[in-house]
Amino acid sequence: MTAAKQQTIHMGQHTIDIKETKEGSVVAKLKSGLSFGVLELEKTEKGDIRLKEMELGSAYVTAEQVAILLHHTNLADDLLASLKKVRQLMTKTVDSVQLGDRNIVVSVNKSGRKTAKLNSGDSFGVLEMEKTSEGIRIKEMEVGSAFITPEQFAAVLFYADLDEEIQLEIKKVKAYYSNK
Fold it and tell me: Which among 67, 165, 170, 76 has a CA at the least distance from the CA of 114?
């Protein structure tokens, strides 16, 4: 985080509010033009991701917006390392994959659009992502916030065919902020 404890980034009709908590973690919240929360990310003390989608139904975001949230919460490098690991260990030709006590189910609709859904246990949904013509559709299905590891987030991105796009945007954001 910069010297300030709080900052706002303006991105067209959206803003990203970044603030440091009393515990020292950084929360980044993407808001729509009417100050409604859309998506919130935070890196927990354990290094996990606390993700909260605040739209009714699903949030639609861009890869750039996700990359900026990841950058400001100090999760970008964790996610890049996790994406590299996921690509080495996994293949995209599966319907589901087990990740510890969670699994990812991959579905393809009639138009060929892939959806990756992270489940807890047998059937409880945690996070669902898909690439759409409007951007990235994110649906967090936990009560309150979803807590996931960077590896689980990377795997969901990988199976939703969003990994390369997010990686490219993270690199652009990192380059931008390193030149400031």
Answer: 165
Three-state SS for 144? coil
Question: Cα 37 to the chain's mean position, in Å?
Answer: 15
Burial of 87 (0-12, 13-18, 19+ CB in 10 A): middle
Alpha carbon distance 54, 37 (integer Å)? 6
Give alpha helix (H) positions in the chain.
Answer: 63-72, 76-89, 150-159, 163-178
pTM for this prediction: 0.88
For residue 45, CA distances in Å to 147, 153, 157 come to 12, 17, 23
- Of 5, 27, 10, 6, residue with least CA distance to 72: 27
| The token pair that represents 42 in the structure block | 């935070």
CB atoms within 10 A of CB 131: 18
- Measured CA to CA, the distance from residue 14 to residue 122 in angstroms comes to 36
DSSP 3-state assignment of 111?
A: coil
Report the C-alpha gap between 45 and 43 in whole angstroms. Answer: 7
Q: What is the pLDDT of residues 22-75, one digit of tens each?
A: 888 999 999 987 668 899 999 998 999 999 988 877 889 999 999 999 999 999
